User: Fold this.
Amino acid sequence: MTGTSDLDVAYVARLARINLTEDEAKIFQRQLDDVLKYVEKLRQVDVTGVDAAAHVLPVFNVVRADTPRDWFTPEQALSNAPRQASGLFIVPKVVE
Amino acid sequence: MTGNEVTAVSIADLQSLLRRREVSSREVINALRERIEAVDGDLGAYLSLDIEAAMKEAEHANVDLPLGGIPIAIKDIINVIGQPCTCASKILNGYRAPYDATVVQKLRAAGAIPFGKTNLDEFAMGSSTENSARKSTRNPWDPSRVPGGSSGGSAAAVAADEAFGALGSDTGGSIRQPAALCGVVGLKPTYGRVSRFGLVAFASSLDQVGPVTKTVRDAALIMNAIAGHDPQDSTSLNESAPDYVASLGNDLRGVRLGVPKEYMIEGIDPQVRAAIDAAVKQFNSLGAEIVEVSLPSTEYAVAVYYIIATAEASANLARFDGVRYGYRAENPKDVLDLYGRTREEGFGPEVKRRIILGTYVLSSGYYDAYYLRAQKVRELIRRDFASVFEKVDALISPTSPVAAFKLGERVADPLQMYLADIFTIAANLAGICGISIPCGFAEAGRTSSANRFAVVRQIAG
Assistant:
């Protein structure tokens, strides 16, 4: 299902790993078509020769020494896990 | 002093009361607890409280420290060790923070007591706090109206004397706009000035943590505690922060204030317009020179923002997949089903919309037309500010084109909600700071505020 833009909400939602009901997809399609129509105005801007700004600070490639430091214990790292066992996060089988 | 008299004071005054031993830190916590019990059932500013933990800290509070013994409320998107950090989302149900954000560590080092987690739009996505999966917060001046958002809980708590001060986060106006709608002070610092380590990321090139307070002095007191370089945040500015308190009270004579003509547009509520005009006159009578300036790319700011912010959000929120923390869908048949249903059931509609839009603008075939173009227009917006700050020291404008609106009035139309962010969004895109200061009340208890963008030399220069 598509609307007035190229966006296919149901398809992109699958890419983003979000299941949607058909009703939800329909509503989002209309709402996001509106938003995409609004952002069309950026096409009017002359951006010839303008560099893209990823962010505003002249800060690049910040590195720190690769030294060990105190951080979470395994227990702390697992403290919010929905399922865990033997010090591991448990998920459904990934590979048959 | 009665409890209500205690909770009504500013942080600066509370500091004096504590130091003169006219009130103890324990009594302060008790007074806050009573105030919250009395009013928060109606307002819904807080999502969680741990009075016992606060009391324990109050017992050995060192009131000689800059914020010694002073409770500060924290937006529930900033990690406080041992406390929930839900981001007002179902997907973080049951999560308890295993560490303190740097800003929280810094508040503690200054003697403050992190006190309670405040409501917000889910993952800070919204302008009314109605996108909270937990509850709506109401505007203390008129409970039929929204407190603004996304830091609506922080702003309502401070306005209703349920907090002396609070931390919020601001990605497109989320500190300044709720501060404006609730009639309190809200400061978004310059990008990089305050660490985001421990702030749950929404849009990393835009997010900043900042204070919501009753007075400008209180905002300065909190900034003195939280500003500065943090090696744990690679975007944190490696420069020493100014003494914000020491720079208060300076003479306005010789200061040049710019009024951007693009910000005085039709569609501004006439009451907001009148309040801003009066504020500009007031600044002028105090010696500031008023200059009309132009920010020609203003009309593109909202469009740029909703491409860049959603793109970054779609990447940042990929971590919520039901594996390591928070909510997980029941009985998944395989790992894709686990992701798909966890995110379907865990995220609310606004978060889903933004992840989908962000995924789309970054997808192959659309990246150049949307994301790359938006980044280029963002650069033009940044240049607008850089050139204006060669002529003026700061800018003044309304924070929001409208005063507080009714609950439910705008939820069905996301685009209309987005358009109201017009005056705050450009500051995030350009990385400059902005402060919202109350300058009048609209009828029916709505408030409007001035939004003063201060000069940021390292960005303007």
